[in-house]
């Protein structure tokens, strides 16, 4: 195993663990007796743990190396995961989600630091493929957990088996994880500035769009488009499929077209997808819109992380956590913003708002191109 494969394994682990938890949510709700409102608050604990830990990943990786921080973070994940199924009170579940979120946040930042260094060392586009493995891990996590439960295994046994798989993948990849990271410069956390602020803003918007599709696509299809409840998940399925395929093929696409064209084309494709969703009359065209959104968004975030290694505005150990945190805030804030707009206007109008934000991504990418003078090869 080389450094490239080891990095892919860690991205796969992060997607696997996150998706596995998504399958556990109904069981956790039942075990704790939490209502919808309380569950929503508890789920914020996961995001809170991730956001608090993300700024620490840069300086910790600089001091101890990517290998140690990734390993510790993944161990936190695999230990806490089974206990999430045992929590019988909201307080215990909230504390465990804080711990689980801490592991997720540290892993997300440290693996991107590793990915940037590996890509720079090999001097070829690799970031889309790394993020593609996160998507593959998500599909595998949801599929494996669902399969294990369908076989009659308890949720605890299923989570233990997932933890065992995570531990095995970490063990296999451990020796090829980098024992170093970029030297720490400046404070542990700083407000993003220069190009890093633009990277973060683009990631915020794209993650907001992804969160919108995740949390509102089924509601839109069922309540607005009168699609049968059994088909409500088709929108997100199309989105996730297109994103996974787009990321796995993204490195080759970026090599051929260049970073700027991939981002501009992606933003336009996602914009067109959202426009299809709120204008198309047939289900086929609406689903085509979700495919466009997934394909368009697929490689924008990976390109942003690739460019972090080339910018000079902030040290990498500070820039990666800053951009990751802004993106994660987009995931958390997106569904709430869309709900607010839908409540005061309509869900289609909320999608119009997200479509407009994709135009902002296009404009910001043009500004980045000008500021960083990243001339792409045709």
UniProtKB/TrEMBL annotation:
InterPro entries: MFS (IPR011701), MFS_dom (IPR020846), MFS_trans_sf (IPR036259), MFS_Transporter (IPR051788). This is MFS transporter. It holds the Pfam family MFS_1. The chain crosses the membrane at residues 38-57, 69-87, 93-118, 130-149, 155-175, 196-219, 231-248, 260-279, 285-306, 318-341, 347-368. Residues 3-373 form the Major facilitator superfamily (MFS) profile domain. Keywords: Cell membrane, Membrane, Transmembrane, Transmembrane helix. It is found in: Membrane. Signal peptide: none annotated. Gene3D superfamilies: MFS general substrate transporter like domains. Coiled coil: none annotated. GO terms for cellular component: membrane. It is a multi-pass membrane protein. It comes from the Bacteria. One of its GO terms (molecular function) is transmembrane transporter activity.
């Amino acid at each position: 195993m080389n450094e490239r494969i080891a990095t892919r394994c860690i991205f796969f682990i992060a997607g696997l663990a996150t998706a596995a938890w998504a399958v556990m949510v109904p069981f956790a709700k039942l075990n704790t007796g939490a209502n919808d409102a309380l569950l929503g608050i508890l789920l914020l604990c996961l995001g809170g743990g991730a956001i608090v830990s993300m700024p620490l990943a840069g300086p910790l990786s600089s001091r101890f190396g990517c290998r140690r921080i990734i390993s510790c973070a993944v161990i936190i994940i695999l230990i806490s995961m089974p206990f999430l199924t045992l929590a019988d009170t909201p307080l215990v579940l909230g504390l465990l989600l804080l711990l689980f979120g801490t592991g997720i946040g540290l892993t997300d930042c440290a693996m991107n630091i590793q990915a940037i260094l590996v890509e720079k060392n090999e001097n070829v586009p690799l970031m889309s493929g790394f993020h593609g493995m996160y998507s593959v891990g998500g599909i595998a996590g949801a599929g494996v957990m669902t399969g294990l439960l369908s076989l009659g295994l308890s949720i605890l046994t299923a989570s233990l088996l997932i933890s065992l798989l995570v531990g095995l993948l970490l063990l296999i990849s451990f020796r090829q994880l980098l024992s170093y990271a970029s030297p720490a410069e400046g404070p542990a956390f700083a407000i993003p500035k220069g190009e890093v602020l633009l990277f973060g803003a683009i990631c915020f918007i794209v993650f907001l769009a992804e969160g919108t599709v995740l949390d509102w696509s089924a509601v839109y299809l069922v309540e607005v488009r009168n699609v049968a409840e059994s088909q409500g998940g088709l929108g997100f399925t199309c989105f996730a499929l297109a994103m996974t395929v787009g990321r796995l093929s993204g490195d080759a696409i970026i090599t051929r077209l260049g970073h700027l064209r991939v981002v501009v084309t992606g933003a336009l494709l996602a914009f067109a997808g959202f426009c299809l969703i709120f204008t198309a009359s047939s289900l086929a065209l609406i689903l085509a819109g979700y495919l466009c959104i997934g394909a368009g968004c697929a490689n924008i975030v990976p390109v942003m992380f690739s460019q972090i290694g080339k910018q000079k505005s902030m040290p990498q150990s500070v820039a990666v956590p800053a951009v990751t945190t802004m993106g994660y805030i987009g995931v958390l804030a997106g569904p709430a913003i869309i709900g607010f707009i839908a409540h005061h206007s309509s869900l289609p109008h909320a999608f119009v708002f997200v479509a407009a934000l994709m135009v902002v991504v296009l404009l910001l990418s043009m500004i980045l191109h000008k500021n960083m003078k990243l001339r792409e090869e045709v």
